[in-house]
Amino acid sequence: MNKVLRKTGMVVAALVVLIILALVVIYTLSTIRMNKKYDLVASTINAPKDQASITEGRRLYISRGCVDCHGADLSGQTFINVPPIGKFTGTNLTSGKGGAASTMSDTDFAFAIRHGIAPDGSALIFMPATDFQGMSDEDVGKIIAYIRRVKPVNETSPAQHAGPITRLLFLAGKMPLLVSAELINHQAKSPAQVEVGETVEYGRYLAIGCTGCHGPGFSGGTIPGGPPDWPHAKNLTPAGDLGKWSQAEFIKTMRTGVRPDDSTLKPPMPWKNFSLMTDVELKAIWMFLKTIPAKETGNR
Q1: Does residue 3 lie in a domain region?
Q2: Residue 96 sits in which domain range?
Q3: N or C: which end of the chain has fewer CB within 10 A?
Q4: 205 and 175 part of one domain
Q5: 230-287, pLDDT tens digit by residue?
Q6: How far apart are CA 64 and CA 221, in angstroms?
Q7: How large is the greatest C-alpha to C-alpha distance in the chain, in angstroms?
Q8: Is the pTM of this model over 0.70?
């Protein structure tokens, strides 16, 4: 009996040691990538100061989804808090004590938004910069203009905490948005502005913001980095339900959160944000989505 217990104890001890070693390796390798510094192409952006640009900046801040992580007052809010996955909180963007706008230049903000890079060259954790990498100087400038005009909030943002599951998935290539800076061509030049209109090109420009959940091929599936209770992102290609909708039904769904079959859109689908999009924007997105080749759901 004692021999059995001794052997069992040795096996358990060995397993514990292996688990500890595995965790050390996972944390070490993921931390190296998370702490990498990046070199960016020198550029300058100056945010406008007129009221029209500030008002439009507020609309863009909400409709492009910034509000989901940084909050209505821009002081930041926790959007994921699941211990094995981690705790992630949007940064306080205001000019209050501890806020980003109190120290960051307009160009710093542009690099953070489009490249996922902090002023010191380090990567911003869980900043979905891939959704904004192609955003024009004009649109980025308006968002920054709005950030600088909101009421200051004195709040120091907590450090991001990536749990063991997140780090393991990140190393396995299943959670790329943990460090979106790895996915971006930091030498690419951003457009100064884009032509607004009911066109496929304008729709393509806007739809980049959908790729974080629906994938670069818009075929949906498991949302990288999302909690286990998040539903799969829908297939937006002609092979999905959208292929049966009309343009009017698409726009109505984006405005009301209710599909043509009377079912409701579930979180994290930010339809309330998208409801602030103009008819021109929604029509352009629809036109672009109609040009996408059909793909099997979940093929990203």
Answers
A1: no
A2: 51-183
A3: N
A4: no
A5: 899 999 999 999 999 999 999 999 999 999 999 999 988 999 999 999 999 999 999 9
A6: 21
A7: 82
A8: yes
